[in-house]
Every structure is written in C-alpha cells, then in structure tokens.
Amino acid sequence: MTKLSLSFYIITIVWCLVVVPFTVFFYEGSDEDDGDQKSTPSAFAYALKWLTPILIFTAAVIFALYWFLGYADIAATRIEGTLTPGTDTSLRASLAYCDTTLNTLGTMTQCISQTGTIHVSVSPIVYIVAIVSFVGWVLFSIFGGVGLIALPVDWISQFLHRPKIIKANEYAETKKEIGRNAQLLMEAGKTLNEELKGATRSGLSGRRWRRMKNRENEFRKDVVILEFHYRRLEDSYRNQGGNFILQLGLFIGGILGAILSVVWFIHIILYLIPWALHVNPYSPFLNTFLTDVNGVPFLGTVFYALFSFYLLACVLKGNSSLGMRVFFLPIHPLQIGETLMNALVFNTGVVLICSMSVAQFCTLAFAKYAKYTSNQSIFGVQMQNLRGIQYGYDAFIFLLLGFSFLTGAYSLYKPHNKRRENQMNFHY
User: Fold this and answer.
1) Which of 35, 308, 326, 364 is 20–30 Å from 264 (CA)?
2) How buried is residue 408: exposed, middle or buried, by Cβ count under 10 Å (0-12/13-18/19+)?
3) How confident is the model at residue 89 (pLDDT cuts 50, 70, 90)?
C-alpha cells in the first residue's frame, strides 16, 4: 500500500511540475499576438522555452538538498539487557522493568535504557515527495488559512446581499453606468496592450517590467469586477433576482462551512498546537469522533473525506480572495461556463500541489484514527523527521492560524459593501 501511495504522489508531482506549467505556458503563448516575435514561433516552443529552465533549476535544487540533507533523524530508545521470562514485551513494560529490577548486588539494573537519534537515509522518491509537499505547505498554510474564514463569510454574505428585483428605469441607469465603465476599461486596455508590446520589443526588464505586469493584473481584476456587476444587474432585472434555490444552497453551504471551520480551529488548538510544541495534546477531539462513528461502516471515512475536501475548497477560496486583494498576485477566476483554460489549469495546479500537504496535514491531525496506514508511514515518520525541514511543519500550523486571524480582522475592518469587488470605482 505504501508503494501505491507513493506512485499516486509521484503522478501528482509530474502533473504539478510538468503538465500544469507546460499547459499554462502553452496558452500564454497562444495569447501572444505580436507578429514581430521570432524566438517563439509557436505556443509549443514558447511553453518549452519557459518550462525547460524551470525543470532544470528544480531538479538541481532537489538533488543538492538530497545529497546533503537526505536523512531522517528519528528519536529512538535503545534497551540492552539479559533475556528474562515474561509475557509483556512492549516498550513501556521493558522500560519499567529496567527502572525497577536490580541485580543481586542491588547497585545497578539488569538492563540499560538509552535515548538517542537514528539517522536513516530516505529514498529519492520519498525525498522528492517531501520537498514538493513542503512547497505545498507554504501555499496551503496561506491560502487555507485565508479560506477557512473567507469561504463561509463570503458565501453567507452573497446570500444576504443577493440581487434584488429592480425596475426598468433603475436597470437602464445602472446599465449606462456599466457601459461608461466598460468604455473606460476598453480604452485603458488598448493603451496597456500597446505599452506591453513596446516593452516586449525593447526587452524591458527589472522593476519597470514588474510595475507594468502589476498594472496588467490590476486591469484584469477590474474587468472581472465589471463583469460581476453586469451579471448581477441582469439577475436583478431579467431573472427577477436570480435563482433563489441556488442562493439558499449557498447560504446553507456557508453555515456548514462555518461549522467545519470552527471545528477545525478547535481541533488545531486542542491537538495540533500541542503537537507542534512537542507536548501531549489536550484532547484527541476529532480522532475520538472519527473512531466512534467508524462503528457504522464507512462513516468514519466519509467524515475524514469531508474534512479533507473542505480544506481543499478553502485553498481555492483563499487563492481567489488573495488574488483579488493583493496587487502583485494574478487572478484566475472560476466561473461556470466562462472559465478560461489557463485559469482552469492554474487552479488545478494549486489543488494538486496542495493536495499532498492537505494529505499530510490530515495524517497528522488524525494520527490516532489513521495510525498504521501507509500515509502515516510516509508523512508521519519519514517526512516528519527529515533533516532541515522537520521544524517547518511546526511553523506552518501557526502560519495557518495567523492568516486566519488576519482574514477575520480584515473581514471586520472591510465589510461587504466596502470591498473592492463590490464597487465600480475604476481609476484610469
């Protein structure tokens, strides 16, 4: 089963490092409409141009890390002594025997117990999975922390501020305003496109190029905001406020999401934070719950999957929320029937690279429930004790909680009607 799990993770890594980046670059190359470009005559060549150095650099970094740090430092207890008859051969019984049994002289025990560290060389496959999972932890702790708050808050807010039925005159006035903003964005887009073409021809780089790309990201976000307001206007007038059943489902999903987020925060505080501080957990909490409900066939597995997939949903929500609010992050919105291929592929890559970190996070969070599993062997023993990065996992727990706290504070500081995506306030 361990080999099967590793095979699944290797396939995931191939998708993350090869298939997804190649597809993103391919569609970016397809969008190039500058006829003067001769170095990348096709989208395929454009993708290879960018993917090849990335793969070489990634392979070099992983090889160097594995060469110097490819070991797991596992704490162990060594017991030496004479064989004696008995029925209990557990470690606890052996240690108790060493502490209480004396030899005939009464001055020393019949066995010796020593604590130490075993240095085990891990396989290259396990180390590659560990490094990619570690990068996924960075994204998961940021996006997941944001999403644990943003997902339920935004879903409930969307129901409370759902489109209301409007009259024809209000519809006409709002449509004119949207038309004026659309014209403004079209002119700004033409100007920005010409500037980008000129910068590409002149080989612009450095800080000026980054500023221009940031302007492009901001422009794309403004376009998404304007499209959102247009769809909302159409729902308010032509669709009589939109589909109430779907809106109610969003509200119910927000309530369930709030419950799941609260449960996750409680479990992190009671179980994972003490684990990160290397002390005994205050309570097994969800481990006990999953063990109890597992009396019904597959019910424990269903709840395990529910908590895991909810974290992946929070990652996607955190990605979109930060992309809309942080100026240097590109946005890749997911809209039913309107999602661009590069946005779909990008979000697929985010889910894939974070899926391994979510799997490791759940393996640690449900260690008592999922003990003796292949994931416990991979994530809980080998990767958890890898030299040089073992303490990073402890820090990621606090990083996730920190981003959740900041997101909650931001939600209180900027309520629904004051957020950028809910205003048509474009400066061009």
Assistant:
1) 326
2) middle
3) low
Token readout for 284 is: 């097994």
How far apart, in whole angstroms, are the C-alpha atoms of residue 313 and residue 311?
5
User: How deeply is 425 buried, as exposed, middle or buried, from its count of CB atoms within 10 A (0-12, 13-18, 19+)?
Assistant: exposed
User: Whole-angstrom Cα distance, residue 120 to residue 74?
Assistant: 8
DSSP letters spanning 125-173: HHHHHHHHHHHHHHHIIIIIHHHHHHHHHHHHHHHHT------HHHHHH
Angle at 325 between CA 253 and CA 335, to 5 degrees: 50
In angstroms, the CA 256 to CA 259 distance is 5
Q: Which residues pair with 108 in a beta bridge?
A: none
Q: How far apart are CA 355 and CA 272, in angstroms?
A: 19
Task: Indicate the pLDDT class of residue 102, thresholds 50, 70 and 90.
Answer: very low
* Cα–Cα distance for residue pair 324/225, rounded to 1 Å: 9
∠ CA 313-314-320 to the nearest 5 degrees?
95
Closest among 340, 399, 338, 390 to 364, alpha carbons compared: 390
Residue 208 has pLDDT above 60, yes or no: yes
CA–CA gap between residue 117 and residue 128 (Å, rounded):
23
- Number of C-beta neighbours around residue 128 at 10 A: 21
Q: Are strands 71-81 and 111-121 parallel, antiparallel or unpaired?
A: antiparallel
Q: What is the C-alpha separation between 40 and 29, in angstroms, rounded? A: 8
What confidence category does residue 361 fall into, taking pLDDT thresholds of 50, 70 and 90? Answer: very high
The closest of 333, 384, 334 to 357, measured between CA atoms, is 384
d(CA 175, CA 424): 12
Read off the tokens for 417: 């009607």
- What's the CA gap between 120 and 110, in Å, rounded? 29
Q: Are 135 and 353 in contact (CB under 8 A)?
A: yes
DSSP 8-state code for residue 383: G
Give me the pLDDT at residue 419, please: 80
Dihedral (CA of 238, 244, 250, 255) sign = positive
Q: Return the higher-pLDDT residue of 401 and 212.
A: 401
In DSSP terms, which residues pair with 113 in a beta bridge? Answer: 79
Q: How far apart are CA 397 and CA 364, in angstroms?
A: 11
3-state secondary structure of 218: helix
Q: How far apart are CA 154 and CA 228, in angstroms?
A: 15
